[in-house]
Amino acid sequence: MPRGLIISQTDSKASHAYAHRVHKLTDCLRARSFHCDIFYMKDHVLLFKQTSASLFMPLWLKTIREYDFIYTGCEGAGHSVFFCRPFIDAPIIYDVHGDIPAQSALTRQLATNGQVSSPSLRVRIVCAMAMMSSDQIVTVCEPHTEEYIREGIDPERVSIIRNGVDLELFKPLPFPEKPEFTIGYAGAFQNWQGMGNLIEAMERIDDPRIRLLMIGFDGEDQPLKRELAEKFGDRVTLVDRVDRPTLVEMLRPVGVLVIPRFDHPAIRNAFPTKFAEYAALGRPIMVNDVDETARFVREYRCGFVADPTPDSMAQTIRRIAETSAGELADMGNRARKMAEENFSWEIIGDAYAAMVRSVVQRYRSRKRR
Question: Exposed/middle/buried for 38, CB within 10 Å: 0-12, 13-18, 19+?
Fold first, then answer.
């Protein structure tokens, strides 16, 4: 069985969504008899900065060369092996985990009020080095895969490995006869999450029966939390970040879970982890028509799709409030089915292990020629 080295650009204590993905994918391989070791770049001071990591990674070349495949998670890890690549006799699998240049462009656009809308030079260089170092590219959604193929990358070199969900932790919640909250949001509050659209949509609704639960505020989000409390009063309940088991329990009184993202290439080429988690809870999902989640919602008839505007979102929220609990419960059951058929780590793990085996075999076959 192939031996793999998992290079993560995080430290060993990281707990965010990407770190969770790295750990789960590693567990998937180990459960299928792969031997995998994880190398955390930020646990080593020389590799802490992405801009210089590639210069120092050759210090670990002897260790890297012991493996049959290398997984590099995100651009920081992908570019770190650039100068090692000629001396590594193993395929490198680069997990891009989203459109990093587009994310950089969006971050700069939001930070400059639209004055700058291009990715930073550093990001462009780092991503180019990561791509040149890789034998296989892993995306999380079809739009990103299709974009790479349009750019001329061999379809054989691109694989989709989505973000998954632990179906045992995120179990179906009994649907309340009368939901206390019409909609709920659980996650981070960065600008690109679309909080502005959701807030403006709620401002357009004056029905006191339509209530919103928001979970996930951290220290940096406290000004936003105070603003929302002043703006909406008892129409909104605001909760700081909690652990996953607590999160599941807190979402019980919610009728529909929402992902309010807006239209941008950085959004289109991503696949939010919360989508799979929402679905696994057996709750309908409200999404905006900006990425692949809208296709899943329509295909499984498990929620609501709005245009990414406050007016359309407000109209959709009003429609949710008028939908019977029984109909919402049926949508939730279909959402759970969608999660079981597409996003369980068991299914994703099988696909991931098969992809790794295929990449290793293809690499070895080409080396023998």
Answer: middle
Alpha-carbon distance 159 to 23, whole Å?
Answer: 19
End-to-end CA distance of the chain: 22
* Mean pLDDT within 4-23: 89
- ∠125-355-296 over CA atoms, to 5°? 85
- pLDDT tens across 235-257, in order? 999 999 998 899 999 999 999 99
Give the tens place of pLDDT for each residue, 278-321.
Answer: 999 999 999 999 999 999 999 999 999 999 999 999 999 999 99
Contacts of 361 (CB under 8 A, 6+ apart): none
What is the pTM assigned to this prediction?
A: 0.90
- Is pLDDT at 368 greater than 70 in this prediction? no
- Residue 225's CB is within 10 A of a number of other CB atoms, namely 17
The helix/strand/coil state of 185 is: strand
- Which single residue is written with the structure tokens 């085996």? 357
* Maximum Cα–Cα distance across the chain: 71
Torsion-angle region of 216 (φ positive above 0: left; ψ -120 to 50: alpha; else: beta): left
Exposure on the CB side of residue 364, measured as CA atoms within 13 A: 9
Burial of 186 (0-12, 13-18, 19+ CB in 10 A): buried
- Beta-carbon contacts of 180 under 8 Å, excluding residues fewer than 6 positions away, are 211, 213, 253, 254
Q: Give SS3 for 269.
A: coil
In contact, 328 and 255? CB cutoff 8 Å: yes
- Beta-strand runs (E) in 143-228: 158-160, 181-186, 212-217
